[in-house]
Amino acid sequence: MRFDRSYCTLLLVLGLLGAGVSGCQKSASPSGQAGSNTNQTVIAVIPKGTANSYWLGVKAGAEAAGREHGVKIDFDGPKLETDITGQINLVEDKINAGVKGIVLAACDTHALLRPVEDALRRGIPVVTIDSGLDPKEDPSYCYIATNNEEGGKKAADALAAAIGQKGKVGILGFLQGAASNDDRLKGFTEEIRKYPGITVVTTLYDDSDTGKAVNQTANMLTAHPDLNGIFAANQPGGVGAANYLRQSGLVGKVKIVAFDASDDEINDLKQGIIQALIVQNPYQMGYQGVIEVLNALAKKPAPQPRFIDSGVTVVTQQNINDPQIQRLLHPGSS
Fold it and tell me: Residue ranges of the Periplasmic binding protein domain (predicted)?
């Protein structure tokens, strides 16, 4: 009887050990099967740069769409928006890594054509956002952006109002050849001509660098000490121009209208250093960019027209506390 009990106990122990081994084998699934993320769809989101907080809005929107649809977002871009070669290499790297789609804000309208065409030849759809490709040659699925010409026109109207529709103004662009820069400046210069009392006396560029924007603002005001207003075409320009006015005691004497809505720009608006912000919707660009890549992967027809306007809003001290403006400025908040 004792032998039988010991024998049964031994069989029970061996059975439990076998079950344990079997359980361990089940949890270690082979690569690419259950328990592994190797088959998850990866969409690369490649901004023009990563140094400015504006692009964090794009990242937040893209990641929200990724969570909703179970895809992985690979957000990666050159640090500086002037690094065209770096962005080209990055697009090629993502192609070779096997991403399923690309959302791209092009540093240059022409230079990024070839890598986009390379992606399409490999069956990887590309959606452009913020800054697109040459419209005469653009092969991307669609283009999601601010109507930058319209934004430039709204900036001109806001600056004209701030300076009483008379005086001298300067333009602080960021990068010639970038579609968003060129369109904003085109819209601004066309609209400002409607005000015969206003003269554009200079156009300088800051390469999307806040420090350089400070220096370029100093150069503007050294050459034109009677300058009345500045149009800054993006976030670094707005922050840099405001910093220079603060440092030089010119707040209120020179008016600023700037694109974008970083924390610094919002604070400068509240303090009266900046008179108006031309606010885009980078969150929507990132979110819709991912959605359109998924539509392309599902073989859905491209939207018609191919340009999707993500919207632009003029924000001033008078409307900054409106609920809809607060949602635009802080899209991640409830």
Answer: 43-299
**Residue 322 forms part of a structural domain:** no
More confident residue, 1 or 137: 137
Q: Domain of 91? A: 42-146+282-310
Mean pLDDT of all residues in the chain? 89
Tokens 């069989």 belong to residue:
11
Q: Name the amino acid, one letter, at 143.
A: Y
Between 209 and 33, residue with greater pLDDT: 209
As beta bridge partners, residue 255 has: 229
User: Do residues 252 and 157 both lie within one domain?
Assistant: yes
CATH number (domain holding residue 212): 3.40.50.2300
The answer as to whether 10 is a domain residue is no
Q: Are 153 and 275 part of one and the same domain?
A: yes
Q: pLDDT tens-digit profile of 71-125?
A: 999 999 999 999 999 999 999 999 999 999 999 999 999 999 999 999 999 999 9
| 204 close to 172: Cβ distance less than 8 angstroms | yes
Q: Is residue 223 part of a domain?
A: yes
What is 119-172 written as a DSSP string?
A: HHHTT--EEEESS---TTT--SS-EEE--HHHHHHHHHHHHHHHTTT-EEEEEE
How does DSSP assign 31-96, residue by residue?
TTSTT--TTS-EEEEE-S-SSSTHHHHHHHHHHHHHHHHT-EEEE---SSTT-HHHHHHHHHHHHH
Whether 183 is covered by a domain: the verdict is yes
Q: How far apart are CA 223 and CA 82, in angstroms?
A: 26
